[in-house]
Amino acid sequence: MALPTIAHRHPDVVALLGDTGEADPRLAIRRKVEGVIEQLRLFGEPSPPFDMLVLVSLLGIRLGAGPPLHSDDAEIGPGEDGQLELRLNQQRPEQRRRFSIGHEIGHTFFPGYDRSVKTRRPKKRDWSDPEDVVEHLCDCAASEFLFPLPWFADELRNRSRTAVELIRLADDYKASREAMLRRYAEIHEEPVAAVFLEWKLKPTQADAWVGVGAAEMLLGIDPREEVEGRKRLRVDYAIVSEAFAARFSPHIPVDKSIDPASVAYEAARSRVGQDAEEWLDIGAVRGKFLVNAVPIPTPPDARGPLGESMVAVLLWPRDKPRCAKPASGQERWF
Description:
single chain; alpha+beta; five-stranded antiparallel sheet; four-stranded mixed sheet; globular
């Protein structure tokens, strides 16, 4: 899906497009990453997963001795002597460190990267914030480094479509399941959606209990405990392939719940990948799908009522595309 117009107006993006000759900022990032990978070829034919610290060294970036000062994950900027330096939180899991390194390298693709400290911002991207335009593109850079083409595209064609194999694919690329599934859906040629589910109340349910205090409890029963039991797996966000967007919709509604009978709930309970064919209704996305349900490592405060994990699902349409009959009477697929 194309970036909003505002992204193309950001001065750093304008400079990136001018430097690469591309019209699409994401393709421009890909060209920059391909240039870095070409440098790796000076030492032999590369093969992912790449050693991210080798890339850092190859680009003349020093690994700082201390932790980041302005980020919980990583930052890049001039050191005390002016040399470009990457400061990394070594306490983070390996998958997160690798993504953070790729993100910070992405900052070097934009002008002025060596004049101030750049950090990976943890919040979700907001297109009304100009800085989030660059942050999104640095996330794209990280994805390109972790799942480089054409290697990763070959994996998509050759691997079986099961949740267990998807988990193995993330492990093989030393990346988080979430990052891998995002990339999987972004580049796939077939209709597929990666839908990321969190344990949530309906917005109206959540609002109803804001401000409830101990003095308002009836007969000593805390209604918030009952409310916790009403949480369902609901859409946090989704990434869809171009073919999926053309067939259904580019958007899957946030907070839309998944049927409790879905295999997604079994994956959440067991924390083991699960597969099933089932009928789903998620806003404009409605029909029969092959569902690959992949449990996502979840902090305790984000788990379900019984300690269930969050889940991501890949949706593969199983119904035939809708068809229309032109005036000639010949059927046409669209």
